Amino acid sequence: MKNKKTIIAIRDFIISAEKSIKNAKKLLKDVLEENNLDISTEVELDTSWLNSYASDDSKIIEWVFTWEEMLGADNNKYPVPANYSSKSKLVQWDKLKLTIAANGKMLYKQIAPIDRVYIAWLVTKEKDKYQVVAEWSTYDLLTAAVTHFKVNIWDSITVIIPEWKQATFAAIDAIIPSE
After folding, report:
1. CATH of domain 116-175
2. CA proximity to 97, closest of 138, 64, 130
3. Closest alpha carbon to 64 in 54, 73, 52
4. Do domains 52-112 and 116-175 have the same CATH topology?
5. Nearest CA-CA partner of 70 in 55, 59, 81
6. pLDDT tens digit string along 150-165?
7. Measuring CA to CA, which residue among 88, 83, 37 is closest to residue 96?
8. Whose CA is closest to 170, among 104, 93, 111?
């Protein structure tokens, strides 16, 4: 009967955890309403439309670019080389494919760029983050992209953001030459 007691204890822990989560959500909602705050603007990425499959000895994973990493069809996060995302001008929500060869070599390929908008603005730096403020939003920039394009604070640059999706990151397209 020890197994029955263990099962009952596990069930009770789950019920307790569910109640705690429900109470925490209610408290959070109350605090947000009292302070007139809205955190629903966080970017959530859906991976249900992505695929994962095998070809020969390789594993192929479709993924969506989140900023400094990718979220795969398998819901795992994979690193993206900063120089690749900078030079390829990857934008949040771009769909890519990662091929992992049997020897571990990784090959990245952009397969469906998201619709883009190009905006010109000035580069700023807040703490250790390079940013632009454009279209009434603040967008972070990859430090590797700032280095790659040799961007300085207060340079005027063109950035790329998704046209129809909210983003927290902008890709650098080019520096606008000063007169």
Report:
1. 2.40.50.140
2. 64
3. 73
4. yes
5. 81
6. 999 999 999 999 988 8
7. 88
8. 93
